[in-house]
């Protein structure tokens, strides 16, 4: 068995899943049916942030041209080195911080090629992270709020105030543990505030979010574009559905203004399972990019890999996503809904070596890990308090402890 060295922790990613689901509240997608997905991306060369010296206070993070995000600077006193840009290709190592009185030297940053993560989502409607005596960050180096980061979870209607309590807890945990926080999602055709939403509302939502959570490393800016879902306010923010896709272009431009250091992702489902939906998604991305949308990466939810989709088909369509868009790929909502332990293990063994060994796949987010508290019923990796074989195998591959 080829082991993949423990992947370093460089930020925060998460998704929540049960009744609202990851597709996000639709049934699991079949051929031609709607489902949900998310994508992440990596980009150009990134430079790791310089570690702060013990006497200098906060160190500055490096920046990357496309896709790689600024590394977090060292904490005051220089005890923590600056992290490298997330997902940057062949980034240069960050300079180690110099030791001083009472401070330890900062560790040198690694190259951009080893910035891949394998993360998970929060558990249940209370958005739990550590659960059942298990520490989330021991097993996962990225977290995505499944529901807490959706606009409608933060703002119930167009005139309501923002409610950040749940997201605050998730973000603070990620910062404390040094794992990647990924936002899901800004603009979507579901779970949005009620009422009449305008450009002003969308811009305020993005601006307030990024001001509050500045170390967000990846953002699903647009989730499940048409025909899967269409925001009720698409025409109010540019229109162009099935044409110029101006509302998507504007969403990415406004997200870049609000969140200049985040990797911006367009996310969808069925785009690595079915050829026609794969091509439609690629066409949207290419049209939006040509119109100036700063899309850094594409996301594939991968909810449809439990059924009859062959591994060869998946590999071919993921590769096509990358080659035709020129963008890195994130597997954003991976789950294998098989109650048979050996069958689930078999899919993990087929899929994960490809995910981990492919340079332009920059991260994987699994959509839930506690059996009975996931969007689809049998995808959980911890059942009756014990790890299922797929969990044990995956932790061994990643050189992380099994629960």
Outline the structure in words.
The chain has 403 residues and is of the alpha/beta class. It has two domains: 43-114, no CATH class; 117-398, TIM Barrel (Alpha-Beta Barrel). 26% of the residues lie in helices and 13% in strands. The protein contains nine helices and eleven strands. The protein has an eight-stranded parallel beta barrel with strand order 2-3-4-5-6-7-8-9, surrounded by five helices. Strands 10-11 form a two-stranded antiparallel ribbon. Helix 6 runs parallel beside helix 7. It is globular and about 50 Å long. Residues 5-23 and 25-114 have low confidence and may be disordered.
Detail the topology: elements first, then pairings.
Layout: E1 39-40, E2 117-121, H1 136-139, E3 142-144, H2 151-154, H3 165-177, E4 180-188, H4 199-212, E5 218-223, H5 246-258, E6 263-268, H6 275-290, E7 297-300, H7 311-325, E8 329-334, H8 341-357, E9 361-366, E10 382-383, E11 386-387, H9 389-398
Parallel strand pairs: 2-3, 2-9, 3-4, 4-5, 5-6, 6-7, 7-8, 8-9
Antiparallel strand pairs: 1-7, 10-11
Helix pairs in contact: 4-5, 6-7, 8-9
